[in-house]
Structure formats: structure tokens, C-alpha cells
Amino acid sequence: MSTTAKKLTPDAAIDEKDDLIDLVGLSRAEMEAVFAEIGLPKFRVKQVWHWIYHHGVQDFSEMTTIARGLQAELAERFTISRPGIATEQTSTDGTRKWLMNFPDGKMAEAVHIPEFDRGAVCISSQVGCTLTCKFCHTGTQRMVRNLTPGEIVGQFMLARDSYGEWPSAMEPRLLTNIVMMGMGEPLYNYDNVVQALRVIMDEEGINVSRRRITLSTAGVVPMIPQVGADLGVQLAISLHAVNDDLRNEIVPINKKYPIADLLDACRVYPTAKNSRRITFEYVMLKGVNDTPADARELVRLIRGIPAKVNLIPFNPWPGAPYECSTDDDIAAFADIVNRAGYSSPVRTPRGRDILAACGQLKTASERERKRV
Ligand code: SAH
Known about the structure:
Blueprint: E1 4-7, E2 21-22, H1 28-36, H2 42-54, H3 68-77, E3 78-79, E4 84-90, E5 96-101, E6 107-114, E7 119-122, E8 126-127, E9 145-146, H4 149-163, E10 177-180, H5 190-201, E11 213-217, H6 224-230, E12 234-238, H7 244-250, H8 259-267, H9 270-273, E13 278-284, H10 292-302, E14 307-313, H11 327-339, H12 363-371
Helix pairs in contact: 1-2, 4-5, 10-11
């Protein structure tokens, strides 16, 4: 398989803007506050917000409804930034991955997974991850830090830049959906994720609706009701096992929040009621969690929850302790879940050639860091 990779942003380019306040990722209230400091009234926030998030401009001089003098004043104090791009790779199947570098030298990855007439951008919430799920490559990387709201929003903006999908109103578009399924556990960076998604959902800006945003969690149970109340986005649960013994081993957060508690939280999650289903992700590990008995137990466990089950063939990585289930075993598993009335698509691995598939987001960032 051939891929293309190019080096884009020189690392030094980021530094000059050090003492400017980055407007990307601020809440409206925060933007009002920093504008008020230089005597700017509220309506300026509305104006600038529209330029930044509807039109995607990165330079105040492009804000043509704002007088030149004020443009210059804004540029003296503020910046509209994007994460730096260390590499951008496009897979033979069209999947595109960005390895981003942040001003402190930390790196994370974002991925675009195109479908025929739409596509999802998979966004990271942390650099590394504190969870140590056994089958996940990111989980073997030390947690480095949370991403800021600006760095989270910036990932989606960078993807729009890359595909030329500004302004927000353009149709049709390739970037229709967002999945918080990149590196990190979004519910362990709760405040920043909420602030970022609120900016992304803002109707006068990027305007991606909550129905097109899916937040995936390994199961930080106490935060799940809050996600419903604060965001109301689609919920995905990384389940991967149907009994606590196995789940304790492969998704260790289960020791703190066992399966029964996790499923109780799902039962009362608001979107589950509105006929918007919860997605259960289930990675298919050969000889570990993939028998017909497992499938039947899964169906029993989720009974009563409007749900769909996403079967993810295990994506291998160097040194991984597992293998992917056979196609036949996956098909048999899917069939049992399907007959019980749950849609059970098998997720086609995307971007494996550029290590962009689920659970593979680590190698490139580590390698790149060593090189730098
Ligand atoms: N921490 C959150 C967000 C990450 S989502 C969560 O766990 O939900 C990434 C998804 O890919 C999760 O469902 C994860 O379990 C799955 N995954 C991790 N490693 C994988 C691998 N090697 N093959 C297939 N899926 C994997």
C-alpha cells in the first residue's frame, strides 16, 4: 500500500505568537471578557465569532466587516491559531491522519474517515491516556496531558482547512460528523471537552449538531449523566467484554465502575429515550471475547437499552498480546446480536496502512517525537 506524507508546519513557526491570547476555544463569555479588557462591546464577539467559526479565517485582516484600525488592534493582542501539523498522511482508502504538534512540543493525532457522501473526524482529547486497556496501543503510552479546549476545537478546524470546507454553511461536505474516539479518555478531561464541544455545536459558528457528535468512553460512570445534561451528544461505550472478570483485565477501569453500573448509566442516558441509540463498541479478540455464548450474554445485558453494537475487528500493533477474531467468528457473533434486534455492523478497518485505525494512534507520534 502506498501512502503520502508531507511535512507542513515548521516547528519554529509557532513561537512568535507566544504572548498573544488565542481566541480559538474560548467560550463566548471568555471572549467577551478579553474583549471588554480593551473596551470592546459584546457585539464584537458575535462578529469575530462568525469570522472565526463560520468562515474559518485565521487572519484579522480578512474580517472585512471590521474596520482596518480595529483589525490591527485585535491582531496586536490576539491570535486565531491551529495546532501545528507535523505530518499529514492519506491512506490508499482515503483516510487522512494528522500528527499535530502543540506549542509545548506535545503531539496528538486526528483522523478523517471518509464515507461515500459524508465522513467523520476522529478527535483526540488527551496526549496519551491514563487508561491501560490491554488491546489499545494508545494505552501503552504514558499520559502526558489534557488537551485544551482550543486544541480540541482546533483539530476539527484543521480538518476543515485541509478539505477546504469553510464556510460552515457549505453543502455537501465530507466532514459531517465528529467522533471523540481519538487518543485519551474524554471524560477524564471533562471540562475542556465540554467547552470544546459547545464551541463546535454553536449555531453561529461551526454548527455541528449534537446528533452528529459521538463521545466514546471506556466507562467513567459518574460523568455519564453529566454528558447527557451538558451536551446531549450521542454516546458510545467501549464495552469489549460481557463479564466483570474479563473486563477487569482488558478494560481495567471496570474495577472501579463495573458492567452493571455502566449499563445502569446507559439506561437513563437521555438520548437512549429519544430513539437515538447508544453505541456499544466491542473489539473482536480471538479466543478472548468472541464466542457465541459471549454474543448471547451481550444481548441479555443490553436488553431494554436502545442500542447498536459496533463490532471492531482488532487492529494489531507491534507487540500486541492479541489477535483479531476470524471472519467466521465475527460473522457468527454479529448474526446472534442482529437476530436479537440490534444492528451490529462490523466496522471495516480504515487507514491501517498509515496506522490510523482504532487503537493504533501512538506509533507515529512516538516515532516523530524521537526524530525531533
Ligand atoms: N477512551 C475512550 C475513547 C477512545 S475510543 C474509549 O475508550 O472509548 C477508541 C476506540 O477504539 C475504543 O472503543 C477502543 O476500545 C477501541 N480500540 C482500542 N484499541 C483497539 C484496537 N487495537 N483495535 C480495535 N479497536 C481498538
